[in-house]
Amino acid sequence: MNSEKVARRGLARRQRASRVVLVLLAAGSANLLAGVAQASPLLDSRVNQQSIGETICRPGYADTVALPFEQAMAHKHRLLAQHGIDVDDGPSYALDQRVPVVLGGSPHAEANLDLLPWAGHAGERRKVRLTVQLKRCVCGGQISLATAQAVISGDWVHEYERFTRMACGANTASKLMTKSDDSH
Rounded to the nearest 5 degrees, what angle is found at the Cα of 68, between the Cα atoms of 17 and 70? Predict the structure, then answer.
């Protein structure tokens, strides 16, 4: 199976998840969406909107919960074999976390692990850029953790441009608070 087929399969899975998110949003169920995201087997139960300051927004958090390198490589080799990809082609693929640890994804859940090609429109390099931006937005208070999780586990390729163009981060949150203080 080539990288294009793996990417298409992952994209189809994310599109199905995205449709569920859109239906929930259309129904005006933002609270339900947060509940669905928090109940997912892809997620780490220790991470929620209330705990982000002590977990994902704390510098170094991901290093404390990430899979050890040897375990990660064992998972990657298993997935390469499952997808029929020769181990010699392995460097072209990343062990992807459908919901990255820095967005509250479970580092140990088998269901949270997949392969993505490193390159391309739906590749791991772009997903990592989006993940970093979503984390900044969550930690800066611009979007909820549940929204970030829904974006990254859904059709993230489609959402990439919108979320990577957002101004997020601690500096943005401070500016927003200062502007609201000035208006009173």
Answer: 100
